[in-house]
Amino acid sequence: MKKTGRALLIAIVLVAAGAPLLAPNPPDRQFTQYLFAPPTHVRLLDGGLTAPYFFPLRIVNRLERRFEEDENRPIPIQWFGNGHLLSVSEGEDAPLLLLGADSYGRDIFSRLLYGARASLGLAALATLAAMIFGAALGGIAGYAGGAIDELFSRLSDFVLVLPATYVVLALRAVMPLVLPAQTVFLLLAGIFALVGWPVVARGVRGIIASEREQEYVAAGRAAGAGPLRLLTKHLLPAAKGYLTTQATLLLPAFILAEATLSYVGLGFPDTVPTWGTMLHDASNVAMLGEAPWMLAPAAAIFLVVLAVNLLVQGSGRSPVQLEP
Amino acid sequence: MARFLLRRLIFAILLIVIVSSGALFLTRLAPGDVTANLGAFAPPEEVARIRARFDLDRSAAAQWGGWALRAIRFDFGDSFLYNRPVGGLIQRAAGNTAVLAVAALSLATLLGIPLGIISGSRRGVAPMLIRGASLVCLSIPPLLTSLLLVFAASRTGWLPAGGMTSVNAVDAGWSSWVLDVVRHLPLPAIALALPIAATFERLQSQSMAETIHQPFVVAALARGVTWRRLVIGHAWRASLRSMCAIYGLAIGALLSGSFVVEYITAWPGLGRLMYEALRARDIYLVAGCSAMGGVFLALGSLVADLLLFAADPRVREGQSA
Question: Which of chain A's residues have a Cβ under 8 Å away from the Cβ of B289?
Answer without folding.
Answer: 166
